[in-house]
TrEMBL record:
<feature type="transmembrane region" description="Helical">
    <location>
        <begin position="29"/>
        <end position="49"/>
    </location>
</feature>
<protein>
    <recommendedName>
        <fullName>Major facilitator superfamily (MFS) profile domain-containing protein</fullName>
    </recommendedName>
</protein>
<keyword id="KW-1133">Transmembrane helix</keyword>
<keyword id="KW-0472">Membrane</keyword>
<keyword id="KW-0812">Transmembrane</keyword>
Length: 50
């Protein structure tokens, strides 16, 4: 990942934190991680039993 995109992401995160607060950002991140974990688990189980 290039430095420019990393700075852009960091800036976007900082703006989001300032606008909506830490708890909301952390909740959104946690929800997305859980969703990815669930999707991955479903894929693995469907491959195992498929």
């Amino acid at each position: 990942m290039s430095t420019g995109s990393a700075l852009g992401i960091a800036g976007a995160v900082a703006v989001a934190v300032t606008a909506i607060g830490w708890r909301t950002v952390l909740t959104m991140v946690a929800v997305s991680i859980i969703a990815l974990a669930v999707v991955g688990f479903v894929n693995v189980t469907s491959i195992m039993f498929g």
